[in-house]
């Protein structure tokens, strides 16, 4: 499938994922693996691990960047944009609607707790499946365990980057090269230009922006998307500084939107759509939607430039044997990162009782029996709701 057909395929697959991928960025990686490695077989675990490792090095939302790379591999630049729009659209619309309606009381619903339990099952399934493929021997299993220990000991983006870096170094020094996972290609001429544009905008926008202007708002969100390492939750202080400190939005409105974002499927960076809609709400629905789109594009533009420019360049050099050996180390470290995240924050934020654990194990069994991820999500949401009614009639 090529051309518009491939772009349409990418769009509809990621739109479905955008509607059903609850649980945060780590869970998204599990959903992606189930959708593209296990079911559609667009790529294998080695290639998927390479993509995850590449995106862990970039600033910005790692799961959205993985979606962009998957779309680009399938359908070129059009596929990259289609994957981003489709995966982001559902949560962005929900967050804009929340800003317009100023809804309350989303955080305590039992079914929302069920979505967190579903994330436990999805991530556990991904760790098991990727671990069997990417850590088949004792050295790589030890590297994965060391990466997990490092991330748990240093629970910030520094720990993640260090784990990936150490994995790459040890792999390059001690592992045998594999020619699987990355296909050598010629880097397109525009790749370097896109990376240069990333830095030009990062340095130039603050110089051109007038305080309290729409360009100033765009510059603030672009800077937040360009400088955050470690995933969606880490962007909170940057966005708070961008909109609360200059007085665009009050603290209570900011935190209300952040709480609602936890209940949404898809990427947490869609919180930017809520902030834009809340800031532009004085101009009515049109003003709210326009400002929401401005903030959403601004916060994702760094990732779009880095992926569109960086991934082709990475493919152009990653076929060398020593780099391929390093990729084996990165893949093992990625398994360790997912294992660490399975414990914290996934399990620690979702499993509070033996009943929670039982629901998670049942959902995991469903996934191991090749049941679809959306069925596991629906099961956990329903089971948690029934448990809530039973415990608190």
Features:
about 400 residues; mainly alpha; 16 helices
Account of the 3D structure:
The protein is mainly alpha-helical. The chain has one domain. It contains 16 helices and no strands. The chain has helices at residues 3-20, 25-39, 45-57, 62-101, 110-134, 138-153, 157-174, 190-208, 214-227, 236-243, 251-261, 271-279, 284-317, 321-347, 354-368, 373-391. Helix 8 packs across helix 13 (284-317) and helix 11 packs antiparallel against helix 12. The protein is globular. Mean pLDDT is 84; it is low at 103-107.
Please give the structural blueprint.
Blueprint: H1 3-20, H2 25-39, H3 45-57, H4 62-101, H5 110-134, H6 138-153, H7 157-174, H8 190-208, H9 214-227, H10 236-243, H11 251-261, H12 271-279, H13 284-317, H14 321-347, H15 354-368, H16 373-391
Helix pairs in contact: 1-4, 2-4, 2-5, 3-4, 3-14, 4-12, 4-13, 5-14, 5-15, 5-16, 6-7, 6-14, 7-14, 8-9, 8-13, 9-10, 9-13, 11-12, 12-13, 15-16
